[in-house]
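Narrative progress, year one. The postdoctoral researcher (J.K.) led the effort to move from monomer predictions toward full complexes, under supervision of the PI. The following entry was the first complex the group processed end to end, covering 587 residues in total.
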Amino acid sequence: MEETLKIIVLVKHVPDAQFDRHLTGEGYTTDRNESILSELDEYALEAALQLAEARGGAKAGNQVIALSMGASGAVNAVKKSLQMGATEGVHLTDSALAGSDAAATSLALAAAIRHIGTGAPVDLVLTGMASTDGETSLVPAQLAERLGLPQVTFASSLTVDGGRLTARRDADTYSETVEASLPAVVSVTDQINEPRYPNFKGIIAAKRKSITTLSLADIGVDPAHVGHAGSWTTVTAAEERPPRTAGTIITDEGDAGIKLVDFLAAQKLL
Amino acid sequence: MANVLVFIDNPGDALKKSTLELLTLGRSLGETAVAVNGDLHQDVSATLAEYGVTAVFRPSAQDLDDYLVSAKAAYLAAAAGAASAGTVLLDNSPEGKEIAARLGIRLNAGVITDVVAVDADGTAHKSVLAGSYTTSARATTVVSVLTVKANNVTPEPASVASAPETSTVEVPADGTATAARITAREQKAASGRPDLSDARIVVAGGRGVDGDFGPVEQLADALGAAVGASRAATDAGWISHDAQVGQTGKTVSPQLYISAGISGAIQQKAGMQTAKVIVAVNKDAESPIFEIADFGIIGDLFDVLPQATEEIKKRKG
Ligand SMILES: Cc1cc2nc3c(=O)[nH]c(=O)nc-3n(C[C@H](O)[C@H](O)[C@H](O)COP(=O)(O)OP(=O)(O)OC[C@H]3O[C@@H](n4cnc5c(N)ncnc54)[C@H](O)[C@@H]3O)c2cc1C
Ligand SMILES: Nc1ncnc2c1ncn2[C@@H]1O[C@H](COP(=O)(O)O)[C@@H](O)[C@H]1O
């Protein structure tokens, strides 16, 4: 018998990059109209679902809990996760959380993870390699530091066996094999799998799954330690870059390669 | 007393240009100490003195590379304490950012990544949302941790060389207690071309190369450029994943980016749209890449690229 797993997947609700994205308000936070489940977090969810399914899925007692921190809209990232196959959802939301930087986000998420782990401990926390809006990749490492857990970041493969995990990590000049004991915090890259689409059955099943809403009071976090006030960094100015505009476009008439070199020479790029 | 600490991971036998940039930036902010991990070569020590470094710290342990990041963060936190650092500077590599992340929690310090410039008052500048905004940010904490992108500072030795003292810093045990262990490390073959992340020129190919990177590589070599790729090309296995440019690949800001057979999806643009000059070669006039190209050629890359390569060779003699 394989061990069963209790996995938390961190899913962020982010502005859809297919549309223009904007920074708004006093703290220059991202405008969250037209937001979606961060596509890089789908890889983490898929990795969790595969680990659970290999152990008999929900029927055998495996849990895949999608956790999102954010304003009311963030519940949609949780719902999408349930449609893809997560067994339950948790939405951490509180007006005091607005404007949290990575340090404040990791503080609140760490407290939520501990809360979810009371009673039955969590085996794995899976995250995306970066949020597609913040793009810092700070949160997974900060969570590992705060929770005192092994950090296995940028995994491009992941296996779990007998309370230990093995992952591969690719850097520019080398690739590594990494081992750690559970529980651990693991971030995964887009090389690890191909996330599934929610199917009709999944969408129907999701309606019966529970979503727990947590506030800061529920997880014992002082509102002064999160949000704009509790963050350790602040954005003091933001300026929109003028969008790039199209330059000269030519159609090849047999000499475009020469014209390209003329252009490079004129730009002093040769 | 030093108030800036620069982290130098495995310097080898000569400091990288990006490290010299950090030392130069550090000096503009205050007295600069360094925390080294790994062997300290004599030539490296000499360069540190030329750059005016006031103190050199080394770890009590030699096995920090065996642990994923946390041991280095624990060491650096102890070194920051020993140096009374107000600012810690690291390079902006994925590992640099991860060390910074954990260091921030250990020091109760705000972390700012992807920094391109730092003012004397500590305000850091960066670009966000795939290059669509530039922002100014600062840490509100006593200590700030900044990861700085390469090629934004001109390295300059100090006007007066220093004679830094070297001391050993005890690595806290909790940096290794619960750490993931690196159990194997394989070197990858070097391409012999410039490093993609900080190359002056990048020539990139996409699905349009249809399995043959030859024309892209030949143009790159004629220009002394690095080779990049779209995810469609790396997923197809035509070229290594290391060459991928974009949201989940590398972010590049070269003087010149030549895009060939790439449509210009948002995830590709996220990694290259801050290039100074963009050239696009694509068969399809409707391709979105033409919306951001300074010079666009509607044509077949198998005609245009080899012709350009020949012409460059001719002109360079
Ligand atoms: C989570 C996620 C992350 C992603 N991250 C990245 C990333 O980091 N980087 C990235 O690039 N993509 C990324 N993608 C994929 C991205 O969405 C696109 O699918 C990809 O960039 C398309 O690659 P392409 O332009 O080479 O292929 P296509 O979109 O198929 O375009 C090929 C182009 O080649 C042209 N062409 C064909 N033959 C020729 C010829 N002989 N001469 C000239 N032109 C020709 C065609 O007209 C076409 O425009 C990501 C996607 C997701 C979901
Ligand atoms: N507000 C959030 N809610 C849930 N998960 C988050 C949140 N912010 C970050 N994460 C997780 O942390 C990963 C890295 O995010 P970042 O450090 O912001 O680049 C994401 O891919 C998510 O899995």
